[in-house]
Design goal:
145 residues, alpha/beta, TIM Barrel, four-stranded parallel β-sheet, 50% helix
Length: 145
């Protein structure tokens, strides 16, 4: 953990010399790397906070009780990875103090899943029903303009 804290501190030092604002998010990845110890995660996040991070991130928190335990132990904004608690609503996150939520690669995974489903429908059923669920060209153009 000491090396990670040193790296965060070094980044903070360098970022302070920039002439534009930059928010440093420090991640404690132990939960997604096989160390299922929320107390260890909290200790890591607290050390990153002391080192000067702006936002803390602990991917792998599995329920709102764990999230609350982390929030109670830190004073910085906490980023939560929603894929581990996909049935939790935005309102539930907000009600306990979460201010940043990530979805990781899941928007892309969702799009790829839809593409695979459409391809399967065409190749195995010879059908094109999926077209009715596709975004219109106009809605995509409005989004990108």
């Amino acid at each position: 953990m000491n090396h990670a804290v040193e790296r965060v501190a070094a980044c903070v030092k360098r970022l302070k010399s920039l002439d534009f604002p930059f928010a440093l998010t420090a991640r404690a990845e132990n939960l997604i790397r096989g160390v299922q110890d929320v107390d260890d995660t909290i200790r890591r996040l607290q050390a990153y906070e002391k080192a000067g991070a702006d936002v803390l991130y602990a991917p792998g928190l599995m329920n709102l009780d764990q999230v609350q335990d982390v929030l109670d132990a830190i004073s910085l904004p906490l980023n939560v990875l929603a894929s581990f608690m996909s049935s939790t609503s935005l309102d539930e996150y907000l009600s306990i103090g979460v201010r940043r939520i990530s979805v990781g690669s899941y928007l892309a995974n969702y799009a790829i899943g839809a593409t695979l489903s459409a391809a399967t429908q065409m190749s195995e059923q010879g059908r094109f029903d999926w077209v009715s669920e596709a975004a219109s060209g106009g809605s995509i153009k409005r989004l990108l303009s």
